[in-house]
Amino acid sequence: MIDYLVIGGGPAGAAAAIVLAEAGASVQLVGRARLPGQQFGESLSPGCAGLIHQLGLWPSFERDGHLPCYTHRSAWNSDELAVHDLIRDPRGHGWHIDRNLFERRMLERARALGVSVTEQRLGGAWSFHDDHWCGSLPRGGQGIRAHRIVDASGKTAWFARRQGVARVVDSRQVALIAVLATECELEDTSSLVETVPEGWWYSAPIPGQRLAVSLFTDAGVDGVREQDAVRRLLARSRYTRERVRAGQARMLEKPRFVDAGSGRLKRIAGPGWVAVGDAAMSYDPLSAHGITLALRSGIDGARVLLADSPAACSAYEQRLFRAYDAYHRECQRFYQEKIRYPDAPYWARRSSWTSRTV
Ligand SMILES: Cc1cc2nc3c(=O)[nH]c(=O)nc-3n(C[C@H](O)[C@H](O)[C@H](O)COP(=O)(O)OP(=O)(O)OC[C@H]3O[C@@H](n4cnc5c(N)ncnc54)[C@H](O)[C@@H]3O)c2cc1C
Q1: pTM of the model
Q2: What atom of ligand 1 comes closest to residue 43's alpha carbon?
């Protein structure tokens, strides 16, 4: 019997596994780091540094050449660019990370602490009796008994959903993602957001002379069905197009769509399990807060399991619900105040926000 089974090898699962292993527990993690080609540009908010330190990842993080981000630029509700300087942020600057490398380093740290990592996708039936979970690994069907389970399976919340927990979906949205190679390292390391009738563009440099460019939009909005539409859509933007042109950037791989919706589980913990990261609740990428939340909730969720107390579990759940409510109000305000294209379907849909339970 192992103490803890962690489902998912993203930032939330790896953070939870590190904390549990540091406490001396036996931990098995089922999942793997993102593969090359599955990455998109991601920014870490300044508040992340403390969490990276807490997880013992700072030395490798510093060595790995993630790019500092000192400035956010945004043309959200007007054509003018607003500049937000992180130089004045007491927590310091943010980063544009090489996400694959970041996840690999987290799993390396977990392994070094004794976590057994199985690169598979967990499936099958899991049952809880005599205060432990029983199930099996898919390949070979090897049986596992675990005292407690951490669901860190991302938005699918694979384990929690199997326990019958519903998910509140606040926004259905997709991101059309393209990674471009630039002629040289970009001087402008800001993150840039720009609204267009179809949704909004985000762009940021990634280490290794690359520029990540994403359009956040509704699946099926006119003209966004075809993946090769990136260039045509880019041409309709202003600042994003200028940035791509300035870097003489060319497409490195075929653009692809990913789910970029937001929502949360109706219950974040149950008998013998907790959900962490996107499995518990996923924010709109506009917040650029998903990885911070994944690390924070991974650490907190693991501590709740170590405490093995219903009161700690309930306090964890309430804290996350409060954080989500505050985020959701702020997000609604952003999408609904002084929008530039009130008649465009993407923005009209967001003017009357309705949540759905699935
Ligand atoms: C387009 C886009 C841009 C974003 N930009 C930013 C940004 O700039 N900054 C930021 O902070 N956040 C950003 N986010 C959000 C951020 O990526 C997520 O919040 C973060 O990845 C959540 O981490 P996680 O570990 O909870 O989940 P994930 O990273 O989704 O990891 C979950 C893992 O579990 C695995 N898994 C699922 N089911 C199983 C199973 N049954 N068995 C085993 N493994 C399983 C999955 O394969 C995956 O590897 C963005 C998101 C999107 C979609």
Answers
A1: 0.95
A2: 8
